[in-house]
Structure formats: C-alpha cells, structure tokens
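Here is one chain, start to finish.
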Amino acid sequence: MAEGSGKNVHAGHRSRVRQRFLEFGGEQLQDHQLLELILFYAIPQRDVNPLAHELIGRFGSLQGVLEASREELKETVGITDNTVALLKLFPEVTRRAVRAQNSVGVIVNTTEEAAELLMPCFVGAQQELLYLLSTDAKGKLLGLDRISVGAVDAVLLDQRRVVEKALHRRASQLFLAHCHVSGLAIPSQSDVSSTQRLRVALGALGLRLNDHIIFADGDYVSMVQSGMIEP
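Its structure:
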C-alpha cells in the first residue's frame, strides 16, 4: 500500500504481467516472471518480485523451485504452506495432463519419442519415480503408468508390478523410465543389473523391454544407447 494513498501500488504491475501472459503466453516471460505470476495468487497483498528473484537465485531455475521440497521452500522468508501447496500443484497437474493427452493414438518406436513423452512425468520430482510406457506391436501408445515412488532397484527386483501393468495394458513393447534426484542421469550398476533381470523376466512372457531411460535435471540417458543393455 502506498503510504496515505489507500491504493495498492503493485496492482498495476500485477495486471500488466497477467495481461502479457494472457496475450502472448509463457514464452514472453522469463522464469522469474512466471514464478512471480504464480506467487500473485498465493501472496495477494505483497510485492512478490523480490521473492521470485530470491527463489530462482537459491534453487537455480524455475524447475529447481518446483522440484524443491516443502522444507527447503519454507526456509525462505515469506513462504507459507499455502504458497508451497500452490507451487507443488503445478508439476502434479502437468504430469496428469500429459498422461491424459498422450493416452490415445500416439506412435512410439524410438527412445527419443519415448523420452519426449516421459520427460514431463518427472517435473518437480522430489524422490525417485518409476514409470512404464506401454505400446502394442506396432508402437501405438497404450498408456503411461507410475509403477513406484522410492527405491527403483527394489521394485525392479520384485518385478511383479511391472509385469502386472504390462499385461493389463495388453502391451507388446515397453519403455521403462525413472529419475535420479541427485541431478546425475547416470545409471548405477544396480539400475543396470535390475533392468537386465527384468528384461529376461518380461521376455519369457513375450514382452519386449525396448529401453530403460534415466532422467535428471531435464536431461536423460538411455541404457541401450549407452551400451549398458543390448538393443
């Protein structure tokens, strides 16, 4: 509030940023401006531009802010549970929208095509997530399923949930994907050995595991393209 004026001095700025987004979309806004736009709705009575810059500076990028944990976010002065909830809402909505959008009619025959579909599933991930992409024999997408949250190698050793999802989808070909929250998309030896065992188990059921893709910080590594498992 401007002293003695009774008017919100930030109202005009908020209106301009919001209108620019509505007219031109997010491509016209920098990361801190998109974050500022989100914060408008969580913190309605305060200039959030400095807070947006502070968060981007601390976590390195807009993606870094969205991937930060509740505890990390609340270490920043001015961030409440209400703000955290709104920030964490965006990645979850993105994942669900992508799964719905890509559920019918898409053809997936290559690792690059699979990675493009799977990448949004890991936006904002704070722990390891394991996803299964299922296709028919001609590569038509049958579905994207989250298999687990947490330690990937333990789930792969169990194998049952992966097999159940694949059979439920009546799949012929599969792409497995998980994320590393460490920031390095390099498969561990445990990742490789677990994948090899799973591939054998799936093969016995007539299911082909085309690749296992590891994501981290907007990048990915293919086990097949890296020579860790056979094509």
